[in-house]
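Field: sequence (string)
Field: structure_tokens (string)

Example rows 1 and 2, in order.
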Amino acid sequence: MTDTFWNELKEELQKGVSKKGHPFRYATLGTVGMDKLARLRTVVLREVLKNGNLRFYTDRRSKKVLHMIENPKVSMLFYQPQKLLQIKVEGLATIHTDQDTISDIWKNIPENNRKDYTTNYAPGSGISDPETISYLEGDHFFCMVEIEPFKIEYLKLNRPNHIRVRYSKNDYGWESEFLVP
């Protein structure tokens, strides 16, 4: 009975990657580092793998990378306002920095987007003037993060009844149960 909702959430996540302007293109990523404080930021969903893993890109010097090294358990939140659909993903983050993987992806990053990964200073560093940001020539701090989900919640705000389903990964696949919204 929950297969319909499972298929919808997978389809919407795929649209986040493939359909320009789809709200699932952007997700809120939550991490918790050694300071035990939840940190939230927006990331761009770049790929949904056949196994359901999610990928995004970042600068390997960013705080989120440090947090994921300290604690690889993360959450991602997606919201589709036209459908009143929220998807919450909990999973384990893996940071890919190996040159073979990165160089293949780097070749396909548009030239004007590459500068996001080539600043002289790490993201979040203090500066006196945004016009004085300087960039490296030929070097970069690009990396890819892959999230392996272990729990996914589907919430559809609907009348007369909201629908909420939790999917939990086990050794045999995914099991589901309806939850009180």
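Row 2 begins here:
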Amino acid sequence: MNNVVLNNSIRFIGLLLLQVLILNHVNLFGFINPLLYIVWVLLYPIKKNKSAILLLSFLLGLSVDFFLDSGGIHAAATLFIAYIRLPILNTVLGKSDFDYLLFNIRSIAFIKALSFITILTLIHHFIVFSLEYFSFNAITSIMYNTILTGIFTIILSVLGIILFTKKK
């Protein structure tokens, strides 16, 4: 088993356990619940098979749904951000800054990495809360929860990436 597969497997299991055992029980101000498991999608290697990330992202989201009894909303949101992460990365970095083989989120400029994390996190959270409320009448609650939970998730994601990943 090579090092990349081992690292991704440990990260997958670690983030899943962190989410379901600890973070699902954190409710700041009664409703802010960080969804840190999406960091796995952000850190998955670019050069790997696209169908593998889609399948594994779906399984990650489905696992979170299983523990939250949320009916597939996390699976749908995680699958969607896994699908659009490469076009978002191309947009944020531009063609000149992007090298598939050498990409590491720690090796790009902080503002570009923060933009990438922020865009995918807010899209993920918007999908989760839209499917959770499933009503146009709740658009203010959807936006409110998306932004506040997103900010908290982004802060934890950036701190986790800085502390637990290597800079190449």
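free_text_note (row 2): The chain is about 70% helix and 0% strand.
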